[in-house]
Amino acid sequence: MVMAKALNVSAAWLAGFDVPMEEENAKVFKPSSWSFEIPFISQKLSAGPGKDWISDEDLEIKTINLADDLPKGVDPSTLVCAEVQGDSMEGAHLYSGDVVIFSKGFISGDGIYVLALCGDVLVKRLQYAPWENKVYIISENQKYPTQSVEADNENLVVLGKVLKWFHFEH
Description:
By secondary structure, the protein is mainly β. The chain has a single domain (about 35-165), classed as Ribbon (Umud Fragment, subunit A), CATH 2.10.109.10. Helix content is about 5%, strand content about 40%. It contains two helices and eleven strands, in the order H-H-E-E-E-E-E-E-E-E-E-E-E. It has helices at about 1-5, 10-15, and strands spanning about 30, 35-45, 50, 60-65, 80-85, 100-105, 110-115, 120-130, 135-140, 145-150, 155-165. Strands 1, 2, 3, 4, 5, 6, 7, 8, 9, 10 and 11 form an eleven-stranded mixed β-sheet that branches. Strand 8 (about 120-130) and strand 9 (about 135-140) form a beta hairpin.
């Protein structure tokens, strides 16, 4: 913090994050504790058949702190946490009750994403096939088939890429 003041830069910038000076205030980035406060939404993410989206009025938001590095280009203010329910991602070691951290609006190649398909909110592996104009929605459990949808399907909304998850012993 002393070094940031001496150099007249934000502590966030000094740590390598792309955060303007005016956004350094403790809403998201807390330079004194070197942690992030991330919204934890009450929406359950289905690793199974799907969950209905909770209306904004009914959505409860809590916060958790995360003291870890973020991938380059991820804005800390876009981070959201949610609990997973279901067993379709067990092959990726993502279990029911685990908490995922995803970046809203961050889409970067194949990977595990939070998405909405026909109104159901899911956490699945996405594989983009631009040459086929398709997106493959892959469960990491052989009990569930891979789905494919047209890349421009209006019923598919990719909400953001999962960056990390926490496994809790149940």
